[in-house]
Amino acid sequence: MEKIIEENKQGESLVLEHKTGNTKKLFIESYGCAMNFSDSEVVASILSQNGFNTTQILEEADLVLVNTCSIRDKAEQTVRKRLEKYNAVKRSVNPKMKVGVLGCMAERLKSQFLEEEKIVDLVVGPDAYKDLPNLLQEVEAGNDAINVILSKDETYGDVSPVRLNSNGVTAFVSITRGCDNMCTFCVVPFTRGRERSREPQSIMEEITDLYNRGFKEITLLGQNVDSYLWYGGGLKKDFVKASEFEKATAVDFTQLLEMVAVGFPKMRIRFSTSNPQDMHESALHIIAKYPNVCKHIHLPVQSGSDRILAAMNRLHTREEYIQLINKINSIIPGCSVTQDMISGFPTETEEDHQDTLSLMEHVKYSFGYMYAYSERPGTLAGRKMEDDVPEETKLRRLQEIVDLQRKHSAFRTQEFLGQTVEVLIEKTSKKSEEQLSGRNSQSITVVFPRENYKIGDFVNVKINSCTSGTLIGEAVGYSDMN
After folding, report:
1. CA distance 169 to 218
2. Which segments constitute the Radical SAM core domain (predicted)?
3. Would you say 104 is a known binding-site residue?
């Protein structure tokens, strides 16, 4: 691979990996969760072995792929608009261009895209990316191409991802695929299949490769990282059938996290996403023990009401969630906690909404991802529950959640005033070429004057001021992580 430096639309420098001798061009866009962005890197790697290098220029692409999200209707509408754009370019500029849909939306809307609307040439589900070369041959032969079969064991652990839109500093490392939790609002178990974990050695090898190439931070990634469990392969639900030897030598998330922390002391370690009922106290002690494991936990709660949590099939109560928050605060002082929250879930009352606000007041999250409920076809909520909260009520409640989160975010950033924090420099600030930007251990953005520092440096920054989402300071020297 050769490294090509290009700028994206925001003017940020990106490191693109190109294989010498490849002549075809792939344009790939990703929407939705971090797992989709990670999957796109797997796709780029597979296609790199079949003659494709990535391009940032849509009009010159031989193949255009969009990696899609189905978790909310808005995400699907965004993808549909992008497909309209691709096809307009195909008609007017590049008639040989092929267009394909990947990911969750591909699995859910396969027949519509190919047969009814005829807006794509191929449809590929999350577990079928290794079949892309065969599917492209079908397209070249003039046939529709589709593979959305879900797998019981595919983890892409044997694929070395091509890093897309990379800053050369941070990277995702996938450790699990699928989900077993069956939350009533969520399509993931239907579009990504049941949960299975990736072999630990392949994870360590991927991180070793990243370290050797100069990367400074990795995020262990999965729909539910805390339930990671390697016992030789297969679905997590089948662990009960494993042999005594497999059970005795199994590796869980706490063990994996410690393996990575010990193995790469000069790299920062993050992980996402956690599920409250699967986060064990043992993992909290690992976070507290190792300084290179970031003090940030993304812990979606979705609602503060026990009644709504039960309707969502969230396998924790409000009180259990609060107890976990209290453990985090006790074991990892200064740890930031962030949230996902849904307003207007079916049957949600004003009292339920007030329970959500009161939970937020108790936790005071550092930041969060907040949405109005969007009915997803195929989910239990979509099939069995009436979407009965008026849209204006959903949006009013959502605004109240957002406003309260903004207040809490400001409270959390103000806690850092006067402190010195370690920052990994990730990019130039959006507002000024003379400012650098990175995150501290708690995943809060920090901006400070460039001076002689560069992207990839670990520096100590004295915090002098802040906004609700950003810490502002001045560097006072390199940290021990360099």
Report:
1. 9
2. 165-412
3. yes
